[in-house]
Amino acid sequence: MKVRKIPMRKCLASNELYPKKELLRIVKTPSGQVVVDLTGKQNGRGAYLKLNQENIEVLKKNHSLKRALDCDIPASIYKELEELLK
């Protein structure tokens, strides 16, 4: 039986590789709106995040999500990430 390759993605905050299913995707849609993609299949430019409190703090401090998606990130996105963490 052939072994299937597991897709790996890099966490934006920690710069570590994880299996894609373990990460949360944040997307800038073609219309320019930034949303948290729970399905992982939404159209647009995506950035991946291992969901924990340390990584959320790193995103806020370093503005790495802003650089990755090349747009301003609303505060509601960070609030939504913290809600998902709970």
Structure report:
A hairpin with a 5-residue loop joins strand 3 (24-28) and strand 4 (34-37). The mean pLDDT is 94. The protein is of the alpha+beta class. Helix content is 31%, strand content 23%. The strands form 2 sheets. Strands 4-3-5 form a 3-stranded antiparallel sheet. It contains 3 helices and 5 strands; from the N terminus they run βββββααα.
Task: Write the topology of this structure.
Blueprint: E1 8-10, E2 17-19, E3 24-28, E4 34-37, E5 45-49, H1 53-62, H2 64-69, H3 75-85
Antiparallel strand pairs: 1-2, 3-4, 3-5
Beta-strand level of the residues, as a percent range?
15-25%
What would you call the shape? Answer: globular
So, the CATH homologous superfamily?
YlxR-like
How many DSSP helices? Answer: 3
